[in-house]
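FYI - complex with calcium ion, inputs then prediction.
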Amino acid sequence: MNILIVEDEPNIASFEKLELEHEGYTVTLAQTGREALTIFEKSLNDNTQEPFSIVLLDIMLPELNGIEVLRRIRKLSQIPVVLVTARGETFDKVNGLDAGADDYIAKPFAIEELLARIRSVLRRSAQQETSPAASSPASSSVITFDRLTLNAASYEVFIDQTLVSLTKTEFLLLKCLLCHQGEVLSRTDIINEVWGEDHYIDENSVDVYVRYLRTKIDEVFNVSYITTVRGAGYTIRKPSNV
Ligand code: CA
């Protein structure tokens, strides 16, 4: 299995390479974002090489940072990407998940943790490939709610007939609330469902994403679907008739 590691600090890069090779992975190193993109793009067109299965991407890179590299990778491919960050960088975390990261790991980390995350991301991505629309078997792929329609298969959300442009995380958050209509979800419930239980997401990130959703839905369409339940969490409610 091929891993692309993007890391500008030679000590960390060689430590990761050594450990991952010891686990049986084939490792390619890139020291800058540009180099990573060049290597990755080339791999997509090279039939002689086994394709990369996962990218381990440092955020703080010279010139082109990790988030920008991730955005460009996402234009080409849905390959699993694990971002490597310094502990507690909430801003980067939100940006990274928005840009399409599959997981995060904070430096410094134990190699066992890195290996566990790599395995978990690969497992999830294999599941998605075998059952594309099976994230929530109890719900059908189209959920309607008042003026809102969410299509889980096509990742589209409409209010009336207008398409609402959401990021992947915003979409998953909205879907999570819609799948639990009438329930109040705690921030932890939301994190577990939207990001997965094995993620380091702090509860503030949930508030940040709720704010994004309200900006794109409630404010634009003059509704108030997403309701804060003080001390408990969030729920989605149909507005009472005015
Ligand atoms: Ca770095």
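The mean pLDDT is 86. The helical segments are 10-22, 33-44, 66-76, 90-98, 111-130, 168-179, 187-194, 203-221.
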